[in-house]
Every structure is written in structure tokens, then in C-alpha cells.
Amino acid sequence: MGRHHWLLLIAVLAVLCLTSAAVSAKKITLTYAHWSTQPGRVALFDEFNKSQDEIEVVFRVMTFSDYAQKLSVEIAAGEGPDIFSVMLYPGAPMPVYSWAKSGILMDLTPYVEKERKELQVEAWYPFIMDRIRFAGRIVGLPYGWTIFGALAYNTDLFAQNGLAFPNDSWTWDTVAKASRKLLKQDNQGKVIQWGLPADNSSIFANWRQIDAMIIAAGGNMYNDMQTALGLRKDSPRRVMNEVVGHITSMDYQLGNPAWSNNKVGMVLWQLHYAAQNATNMSLGKIQPVAMQLASSPKDDVTGLRRNYTEIAAIGINRNTKYPEAAWKVLKYVNQHYPEIWLQAEGFLMYPTLTQAKISMFLRPGTGADNPIFRSMPAVMPAMAESAILQTPVVNQRVAEFEPQISSILTTEFTKVVKLTTSLEQFFENAEKQVNPLLQP
């Protein structure tokens, strides 16, 4: 090859290198923060990265215990990940309202409104849009949801004790009677077979469950102006008295047995928690139990069923230099979550945003022998219908201090559940701590 040709080849290679460098330099890198690395979650961003050449998402794992605090500090300092997961449910350990009000979370309302049709917002379950709006702003783009309070029951124990399986007509009184019949004790009074463990996974100690039961009973946590707790009123008092009464009489049993124990009759689960357990049983990671799902119980007087939801969503950091690119990532997760997660893990961690895709919760051939999965598609729509829409905020301090208020009530009502304090003392303790937070 002559000198002229060598020079030409070198020039061409140099141009190609410069062009490649220019293309590489234009690629946007975004950081996504979450507190775990499920295969499905990692797959979502891997697939996004493969889908185009303009944006690269880098996964950042943070410790859950200090996730919210670290994000608050970093973003307030003008830093932090470009996009990050937000927990959207009442009492979540994350100051989402304050983040929205202060602008830490970018307001996604203009983006969502502009692309409502493409996002199929009108087909979402109604509680989803209701739960992603804080301080008048849409704080995160959802991709799934779960709901608290589904009744999981041990079909073997029910059959052995001659009990009919739970159905849509079951009330809390029905649950208590079944629980009592499932209870077995040894000669020393030690529980050896459980009905419904009252404090297993903090079922009743967790205030979210009690609040949902109060709302189903027609009650409210606050007075009309939301300037003080209203828990001494008839409906809330009745619900709490019934729970305490069932615990005192051992209709519900105190104790915290392993949920997978074949001697546990019933538990209350989130839908996605049930799916995780079903998967772990199918894979042999935990002891298989003949557990099946039913809708949550109804209030004995009103006949209503109410449950709180958790929305799985991703928000955008106000400090990001690339809001349009970040929005593109959020849209991809919103639109591709079911297919990618299902392929990666064999089941969906969260039900889909629309009922049209609810049947694809389980990949064909994966864990099909597990009764939880078999009952899941029928239970999910019924539970979705019972989802609580957010209570209209009269006093903004209710929304601002929601996580703190929920924590206080959970702590104080745990003492009642454990039978270490009276309900009247609970009222006093709770009011003393919560009411000052509600004052202007």
C-alpha cells in the first residue's frame, strides 16, 4: 500500500474515532436509586438501556433505613440521583408531601397531562391517580400497585377442622369465629395451632389496618376540621373495642409464629407479599404451605370492605440536568413493567395499572401448582374495588405529618394489642402527641 493510501486510511480512522467519541459524549447517564435489586427491577433498566443509544441508566442501591433521609440531604444540597423510587401509601416512611411541597420531587403533572392518552391514564384503577398526587402535584409515574389486607388461609387446616373456605361474604366476626375454631392449646395453655395471630407481621398493631377498618365502619380518624383526632367517636371506638375484645377472648391469638408454619390458619397480607411467598414456596426456598387467598373481611355492621393501597412509582429529582431523558425512562418503566418483570422473575411483584392486563400476573408454567397464584387473579379485582381514595385534606398539616402521625398511632395501639394498656389510655396518649401536630 502506497504512502498516499496509508495517509488516507489513517485520516478515515481518525474521523471514525472522532465521530464515535462525539456520539459517546452525547450519551446521557442517569442514576436510578432504590433499596433492593430484584431481578425484575434490574431487568427493566437493562432492557431500557438496550432499547436505545441516547440514555444510560445506572442502578444505585441505597440502604432502606436511611433512604429517605439521605435523599432529602442530597437533593437539598443540589445533588442526588436523577430518578428514584417513591413509596406512596399512608404512613410510608418517606416525607412525600414535604418533598412535593418543597419541590424536591419534580412536578410531573404537565408531563402526565400532555401524554394521558399514550399512558392510558383513563384505564388506570381510579385510586392510582388519587394516590400519586401530593400537594397538588403528581410526584411519581406509577407502574404497579399492591393492596393491604388480603386474607391468606391454610386450606389444609380449614379442611381438617371442617371449616368452609373464606369467601366474599366473610366479615371480621366470621374471621374471629373461624380463628377460634382453629385454635389449639396444650395442657399448659401454650398455643400449638393458630387461627389468626393478632400481632403476626403487626396485623392489628399497624395503624394502617385499623384505620382501614374504621373507614369501612363509616368512621374517620379526625374531627371534621382535622384539627384533632376523632377516635373517641362511636364507629372508631366500636372497631377498636371489637379488635381488643377478640384478642382478650383469644379469638385472635397473641404471638408471632412463622407465617410459613403449617399450624397457622390465617394471615393478612399485601398482594405482592403473597406473590413473593408463593414464588419462594414454588422454588423451595421456604416450606410449602397450602395457602390460598380471599378478599379482606367486611365490617360487621356496614358490610363494607376498605383497604389501603401502595403505589409503586418513580419520581424525578428536581436537580436533574436531563428532565426530558428522565421522563423517557419513567415512561418506559410505566409501559413495559409487566412484560419485562414477568420474563425476569416468572411473576409480577405488583398488579398492573389496568384491569385489562390483570390476568398476566403469572408467567405460564411458573408455579402454576401454587394455590396462591391460582386464587390471585380472582382476588385482585375484588380488592381493587375496595381501595380507599385519599381523604380530602381540610388541614394541610394532616398530609404534612402523615408518616409521623401513623408512627405514633401504630406505637400506641401496639400497646393496646399487646394488652399492656387500655383503650382509654390509648386515646389520651395518642391525642397528647398528635393533636399538637395538627394545630396551625
Please state the CA-atom Rg, rounded to the nearest Å.
Answer: 25 Å
Strand content: 5-15%
CATH fold-level assignment of the largest domain: D-Maltodextrin-Binding Protein, domain 2
Tally of discrete structural domains: 2
CATH homologous superfamily grouping of the largest domain: Periplasmic binding protein-like II
Biggest sheet descriptor: 5 strands, mixed
Strand arrangement, largest sheet? Answer: 2-1-3-14-6
What low-confidence regions span 5 or more consecutive residues with pLDDT below 50? 20-24
The CATH class label of the largest domain is: Alpha Beta
Gross CATH architecture of the largest domain: 3-Layer(aba) Sandwich
Distance between the termini: 85 Å
Overall mean pLDDT stands at 88
The number of helical segments is: 17
User: What class would the helix/strand composition place it in?
Assistant: alpha/beta
| Helix proportion range | 40-55%
Q: How many E strands?
A: 14
Please provide a written account of the structure.
- There is one protein chain.
- By secondary structure, the protein is of the alpha/beta class.
- It folds into two domains: 28-147 and 309-371, Periplasmic binding protein-like II (D-Maltodextrin-Binding Protein, domain 2); 150-218 and 231-305 and 407-422, Periplasmic binding protein-like II (D-Maltodextrin-Binding Protein, domain 2).
- Helices cover 45% and strands 14% of the residues.
- The protein has 17 helices and 14 strands.
- Strands 2-1-3-14-6 form a five-stranded mixed sheet.
- Strand 8 (184-185) and strand 9 (191-193) form a beta hairpin.
- Helix 12 packs antiparallel against helix 14.
- Mean pLDDT is 88; it is low at 20-24.
